[in-house]
Design a protein that fits this description.
Low-confidence stretches of chain A: 1-17
Shape of chain A: elongated
CATH architecture of the largest domain in chain A: 3-Layer(aba) Sandwich
Strand content of chain A: 15-25%
Strand content of chain B: under 5%
Helix content of chain B: 55-70%
Distance between the termini of chain B: 50 Å
Number of domains of chain A: 5
Largest sheet of chain A: 7 strands, mixed
Number of helices of chain A: 27
CATH class of the largest domain in chain A: Alpha Beta
Oligomer: heterodimer
Shape of chain B: elongated
Distance between the termini of chain A: 30 Å
Order of helices and strands of chain B: HH
Number of helices of chain B: 2
Radius of gyration of chain B: 18 Å
CATH superfamily of the largest domain in chain A: HAD superfamily/HAD-like
Largest interface: A-B, 26 and 25 residues
Chain lengths: 748, 55
């Protein structure tokens, strides 16, 4: 797929590697003015310096290309070009062996990230300088010097509070004005009260000022928040960079026979669209001209391709396999099958909407408790001494010391480390709440086609077929994109019996491939057609109507599927298969994987309904699926996962997307989620335990700024250190696993 | 006290200088592609064929 293994992808993958059509690229290009155009492409295959050089130099040599630059972090390439004709960008990528595709424009740069980074920088600058002055005060600066240092600290703290603190003030205000409570409320309150009290002390030449605590708290918390954001951003970029499966437009045949490539939004019912072999159908329609095989697996879950003859209806998202067809659009894109799935998804109220994040639940309990303690402290000191100033000072000290620095870090730090672990295993997680939800599942439902199986067939009886016949069949099959042909070609590829020559090869949709070599006619395909007899069944290779070999196929099971199912069941999570495919195929897969419960022929809205039924029964269900028909169920489930090959909306609906082929990604993600759930709870325990120790000291009035700073840093470091244990424990587990699998390999 | 009057402004000025430099690098897009920058430093670029900065 890349520089490290050039040409590893065989011609079989041509259909997948074809990349976006020139018309599609032109449609997605932006005009920069002055005749300059910019095209951005996602190229997930770039991963080293050699890739950058190969792509930049190859693109740079093209006529019309002004500038080409690879961004290795986001795995994107931007090409600036000018002129009437689009430079052969897609062809260049194909030639180099990289899959390039257009991606959904995510509105340029991520402003929130830059705002957070600027806030971290300002808070860091202020915290460093104030700490410098505070150390001098702690080490004994007196009277005038101390006052001077306090005044300077107060001045430095203002921009930090206003600029860096507004992120917390905004969020806290948002929560309060909606009558909710979040972790940012006690933070915002603690920070501003600490500042206000310190300013009062400074004006009255007091001894203790908490400017350092107030600003370094912001600094620490902002770091956690920024890391959290970076992690989610990275997963999002990786997901938006994936190939879009739905086309951006279609070739419209006008009344006068002329052709226009129109964007999806401009396609109206009644238009005639030309769909080439290997393209996806953009809108619902009826076939008017041509006959072809259609792969419906993405739309309905059926794994066997259907024949589409004139008059047959097709739905958006289906893939045209063998011959070009003309369809008449029946609905605009917004009323097509895809849009129907979107509506179902919106109607489905998934776990995401119902779930309240752990941190929010904790803070809903924690904040009132803290504020009540502070209030009681104030009341107690008022009663005991009658000294206003003293009572307020001590009450604020309680708020400062209980300010949830460690609590604010407890969740994001663990989730950042966990997301990194998942990332290394090729699993993208959309947000932190997904991990919390995954940790509590008690049931898993899998789609079949494309999830448990690869959506492609495998030749089952390759060993029984004569090698010569298989090689010949492979040579014929190589002319077709039909999944069964590809399976034959893949099986024959390893045998190689000298390439035979044919005078003419023709694919007959719904039947098979006919190859003529002199007087001999070879037919590979449906037995009735190839042998010319009605009672024949199965797929055969025939020479002049006489059968030579019979081919049997099976759904190719996704690697690691068996292990994934086994590990989930061993973990006490029952597994169910829910597929739109026909009964016999689903039963076969279920038996192969040892899954007891399965449903077949399930319609998309029934899939979503099943999720709702399970949720109503108190189950927390993980849904793993890939098709358009799974998207509503993915949205309706407690937590969802999709393979990278999934339909666009399925991928967007899923909480997790796994990039590698192996289905063991599911138990791996579950394992990481559970571990991080445990660590988060430990972190909460640590943070609350620390508060239990510190609060009595504060209530009794013994807290000094030095003590507050030390306590805060120590508790934060403890929490961070505990979070990092996730990577240590995980590495050890992975090593064990490797050792086990290599021992297994040796045993075999 | 007089040395403080010099040292504190100097310390603050240097800190602000660092902050300003960081914000400038941020604005000029130097953190857009950190992985790429790590690889590009190893490229041999022929004289007079420097790539244009930024993107």
């Amino acid at each position: 797929m890349s520089c490290c293994a050039p040409g590893a992808e065989s011609a079989l993958d041509l259909a997948k590697a074809a990349g976006p059509a020139p018309d599609e690229i032109r449609l997605a290009s932006r005009a920069l003015g002055d005749g300059l155009m910019q095209t951005d492409l996602a190229v997930p295959g770039v991963h080293c310096g050699a890739c950058i050089q190969a792509i930049e130099s190859a693109l740079g040599k093209l006529d019309g290309v002004v500038h080409a630059r690879v961004n290795l972090s986001t795995k994107r390439v931007s090409v600036k070009w000018r002129g009437e004709v689009l430079p052969p960008i897609a062809e260049t990528f194909n030639r180099l062996g990289y899959a390039a595709h257009l991606f959904e424009d995510d509105a340029g740069k991520d402003e929130t990230l830059w705002e957070l980074i600027r806030a971290v920088a300002v808070a860091g600058f202020a915290a460093g300088n104030i700490m410098l002055l505070s150390v001098s005060v702690w080490s004994g600066a007196d009277e005038a010097t101390r006052d001077l240092f306090h005044w300077i600290s107060a001045l430095i703290a203002i921009p930090a509070l206003v600029y860096a603190g507004r992120i917390y003030f905004r969020s806290a205000w948002n929560a309060l004005s909606h009558g909710r409570m979040n972790m940012d409320v006690p933070i915002a309150l603690g920070v501003s009260l600490a500042y206000g009290m310190s300013l009062y002390e400074t004006i009255h030449h007091g001894q203790h000022a908490y400017f350092d605590a107030s600003v370094s708290l912001l600094f620490f918390l902002l770091i956690g928040r920024t890391l959290d954001h970076v992690m989610r951003q990275r997963a999002r970029t990786a997901v938006t960079g994936l190939a879009r499966l739905s086309p951006r437009g279609a070739m419209v045949v006008r009344e006068d026979g002329g052709r226009d490539y129109l964007p999806l939004g401009e396609i109206a019912p009644g238009m005639r669209l030309l769909i080439a072999a290997g393209e996806r159908i953009p809108v619902d329609g009826i076939v008017r001209g041509g006959t072809s095989d259609i792969d419906c697996s993405m739309a309905t879950g059926e794994s066997a391709p259907q024949v589409a003859e004139p008059g047959a209806s097709v739905r958006a998202g289906m893939l045209n396999l063998t011959q070009p067809v003309t369809i008449e659009a029946l609905a605009a894109a917004k009323d097509s099958f895809l849009a129907e799935m979107m509506r179902l998804m919106e109607a489905a109220e998934g776990g995401r909407a119902r779930y309240r994040r752990l941190a929010d639940r904790v803070s809903a309990l924690y904040s009132p408790l803290v504020h009540l303690t502070a209030l009681l402290t104030f009341a107690g000191w008022m009663l005991a001494t009658g000294d206003w100033h003293r009572a307020i000072t001590i009450a604020i000290a309680v708020l400062i010391i209980t300010c949830p620095c460690a609590l604010g870090l407890a969740v994001p730090i663990v989730q950042v480390v966990a997301a990194r672990r998942l990332f290394e295993n090729g699993i993208m997680v959309k947000d932190g709440s997904a991990m919390e939800r995954l940790a509590e599942i008690d049931m898993a439902v899998f789609d079949k086609t494309g999830t448990l199986t690869m959506g492609s067939a495998r030749l089952e009886n390759a060993g029984e077929i004569d090698a010569g016949a298989l090689a010949l069949a492979g040579a014929i099959a190589a002319h077709s994109r039909h999944p069964l042909s590809q399976a034959v070609a893949a099986a024959a590829g390893r045998l190689d019996g000298g390439a035979p020559r044919f005078d003419r090869v023709e694919e007959i949709p719904g039947c098979g491939i006919e190859a003529k070599a002199g007087a001999v006619t070879w037919r590979l395909g449906r037995a009735q057609w190839a042998l010319g007899r009605d009672e024949a069944d199965g797929t055969v290779l025939a020479r002049n109507g006489i059968g030579i070999a019979v081919f049997r196929f099976e759904d190719r099971v996704r690697p690691g599927a068996e292990e994934a199912v086994g590990r989930l069941e061993a973990d006490g999570i029952p597994v169910e298969i829910m597929s739109g495919d026909e009964e016999s195929r689903v039963a076969l897969t279920a038996k192969r994987l040892g899954v007891e419960h399965y449903r077949s022929g399930v319609l998309p809205d029934d899939k979503a309904n099943r999720m709702a039924v399970l949720a109503a029964a108190g189950h927390k269900v993980l849904m793993v699926g890939d098709g358009l028909n799974d998207a509503p169920a993915l949205a309706a489930s407690h937590v969802s996962m999709a393979p990278v090959t999934a339909a666009d909306i399925g991928r967007n609906a899923a909480d997790f997307v796994f990039l590698r082929e192996k289905l063991t990604a599911v138990p791996v993600a579950l394992d990481v989620a559970r571990r991080s759930g445990r660590l988060i709870r430990q972190n909460f325990a640590l943070a609350i335990g620390y508060n239990a120790l510190a609060v009595p000291i504060a209530v009794l009035g013994y807290v000094t700024p030095l003590l507050a700073a030390v306590a805060m840093s120590v508790s934060s470091l403890l929490v961070i250190g505990n979070a990092l244990r996730l990577s240590g424990a995980y590495r050890a587990a992975m090593k064990q696993e490797e050792a086990r699998s290599s021992a297994l390999a040796r045993a075999i | 006290m007089t040395n403080l009057a010099i040292l504190i402004p100097v310390a603050l000025f240097l800190g602000a200088l660092g902050l300003g430099a960081f914000l400038w690098t941020l604005r000029s897009g130097q953190y857009e592609d950190l992985d790429g920058a790590a690889e590009r430093v190893l490229f041999d670029i022929p004289e007079g064929d420097q790539p244009e900065s930024g993107a």
